[in-house]
Design brief:
Length: 318
């Protein structure tokens, strides 16, 4: 499949870095999906199976111009993927306590402030990228596979998993769209039998991380750009597509499609969804919000927010 263009000129509200991040994520996702398909064919064509115990009321069987886009954290999976990846990296002594303490402070600040200050986020990204700089992509890929089995497999929301399976059963593509590292997201998508994943793309040369991102983290407007770029590459009709998220930060992505869903929504998204008569689903039991707290004893989970763009595991070659 031909590579997508970088920074094609067009009038959009998103920044140039968001466009670059979105198009890089779409290209990486398509490449990873193609490689995964080739690997399955080489093994004899087997693919993961799932069970749909609950289905949405609209996927049209056989509509190959429709697709579904799912946010990952607190939508498909309880908590943040990068949180669990951080636990795995710390467990394997991938970084030191002094680095953990810095990320713990950044994560605590983010939780308490509840806003994403650009300067603070830039500092967090630079700190996190410094950890993976010089490490091999293959090393973190192997760790990502192990971390899924250790921490993530049991945290998939059954209800959201069923929604994704309903789209698959209808013959539609299903993509994760997340600020998590693109190859971490691709591992999760593969384990769930989804089509692929769009995630934050980090640069690497000859299989080694340079410590730089392509564009910016796949967050907010960048997610919408990634979905837009993928839809163009795959000839999808966004009016016939669906998108699912828990966060008001994903309103740009949800607004692109004809079937937006608020899943386990935060307060701002719930209010916005009700105003626009979007569908709502909440799979949490007895809770108003699905917030992942920082473990009191072991601060390993504090890595989550600070490393949201750090460990993006996509191989970029100059």
């Amino acid at each position: 499949m031909a590579a997508l263009g970088w920074l094609t000129p067009r009038k959009r509200s998103a920044t140039a870095r968001s466009v670059l991040a979105g198009e890089a994520a779409a290209e990486a996702g398509l490449k990873s999906t193609q490689e995964a398909q080739e690997a399955r064919e080489a093994r004899g064509g087997e693919s993961p199976a799932g069970t749909a115990d609950e289905a949405p009321d609209f996927p049209v069987a056989g509509d190959d111009r429709a697709a579904a886009f799912f946010d990952l954290d607190n939508t498909v999976m309880q908590g943040a993927a990068i949180y669990h990846l951080g636990r795995g990296l710390y467990k394997r002594k991938f970084f030191q306590r002094r680095e953990l303490a810095r990320f713990a402070w950044q994560q605590t600040w983010f939780r308490l402030a509840g806003v994403e200050d650009p300067a603070h986020m830039q500092d967090a990204r630079e700190s996190a990228l410094s950890i993976v700089k010089g490490h091999r992509v293959s090393e973190l890929m192997s760790i990502g596979e192990e971390v899924y089995d250790e921490y993530m497999a049991d945290r998939i929301w059954p209800g959201t998993r069923a929604l994704a399976q309903a789209h698959l059963d209808a013959g539609q593509q299903v993509w994760l769209v997340t600020a998590a590292p693109v190859e971490t997201a691709t591992i999760i998508a593969g384990r769930l039998g989804l089509t692929g994943a769009l995630g934050t793309v980090a640069e690497s040369v000859d299989g080694v991380y340079t410590g730089r991102l392509v564009g910016e983290p796949l967050h907010g407007p960048a997610k919408a750009e990634a979905v837009r770029a993928l839809a163009a590459a795959e000839n999808l009709d966004l009016d016939r597509c669906a998108a699912y998220s828990d966060s008001h930060n994903d309103i740009p992505m949800l607004s692109l499609v004809g079937h937006p869903y608020a899943i386990n929504p935060d307060a701002k998204l719930r209010k916005h969804a009700r105003k626009l008569d979007w569908r709502l689903r909440d799979y949490r039991t007895g809770r108003k919000a699905a917030k992942v707290g920082i473990p009191a004893a072991a601060g390993v989970g504090a890595l989550a927010g600070g490393t949201a763009a750090a460990v993006a595991l996509h191989r970029r070659r100059r």
